[in-house]
Amino acid sequence: MFAEHLKNEEKDAAIKLILELIAEKKPVREIYEKWIIPAIVHWECPFEAEPYCIWREHVLSTTLKTAIELCYPLVMAEYEKRKSKNKSVFVFCPWEEFHEIGIRLIADVFHAHGYAVTYTGVNTPEKALTEALSRHTPNCLAISVTNPYHLFQVQNLIRRIRIIEPNVKIMVGGQAIQRNTPVCNAIGADVYIYSIEDLYQLLEEEEAK
Ligand code: B12
Fold first, then answer.
1. Cα of 15 to ligand 1 centre, how many Å?
2. Residues 6+ apart with CB under 8 A from 149
3. Are the C-beta atoms of 143 and 94 separated by less than 8 Å?
4. Local confidence band at 29 (pLDDT 50, 70, 90 cut-offs)
5. For residue 49, what pLDDT band results from cuts at 50, 70 and 90?
6. Could you tell me the residue ranges of all domains in the chain?
7. CATH superfamily ID and name for 82-208
8. Whole-number Å distance between alpha carbons of 141 and 124
9. Ligand 1 pocket, mutate which of 28, 89, 175 (most atoms under 8 A from CB)
10. Ligand 1, atom 84: nearest CA belongs to which residue?
11. 184 alpha carbon – ligand 1 mean position (Å)
């Protein structure tokens, strides 16, 4: 139903549904995995019938961003239960990468698992990132790459970060990784993650230690 509302550009109806789930105290993981992700993950723009249909993706992702932000108090409540001084992460997409929904969810998953999150979002310039790194020293960097053309840039970025922050753990995920697994091993990250479920598993194992 949520996906139908999005498809029909019924933002208010979609948001009401999310507000109901929040009022019913559904866990944030359930809202993300049962409602938000399925509503976009199989979306295909009908380019042949409508060559300029990309506007539909902008409308859809804007509604999803509203839905995700409404869930933030649930994420904060989880953080309060699990927060730890030794967990901090920078979460971002590289320069010119504009796919935001996946990385926005990943930022919340980290926060809900007790991480202090610095989220610089999509299209993060390297200079801005290194400047932020000089102010905070995170334990981990989580990079999201959707467009495979950005993999080379990320490889270079990782090489340069290793020089200034040799101890930071670098994790890369996103569709470019899912689609190009063999190539990705050369990027130089410490961890490659293929899905949000794999991240949950990794963070839960880390918590159990
Ligand atoms: C929405 C969308 C857009 C929107 C994004 C708006 C926004 N604010 O985010 C807009 C319109 C901007 C857009 C633009 C483009 N897009 Co687009 N887009 C999509 C679409 C429909 C959905 C992407 C999405 O949000 N998925 C949902 C999220 C939840 O999934 P996800 O990103 O994979 O993230 C999950 C996992 O990968 C993982 N994950 C992601 N990152 C990370 C990071 C870490 C550390 C971890 C642990 C896990 C992790 O967890 C997430 C949750 O499960 C996809 C098609 C599709 N159905 O996937 C095309 C798609 C990704 N786009 C595509 C393309 C080609 C483009 C454009 C080049 C189109 C163009 N010609 O201009 C531009 C590129 C813009 C740019 N420079 O980045 C292609 C990419 C194909 C490829 N091989 O490169 C796709 C697959 C469409 C297609 N079938 O061709 N797009």
1. 22
2. none
3. yes
4. very high
5. confident
6. 2-70, 82-208
7. Cobalamin-binding domain (3.40.50.280)
8. 13
9. 175
10. 147
11. 18
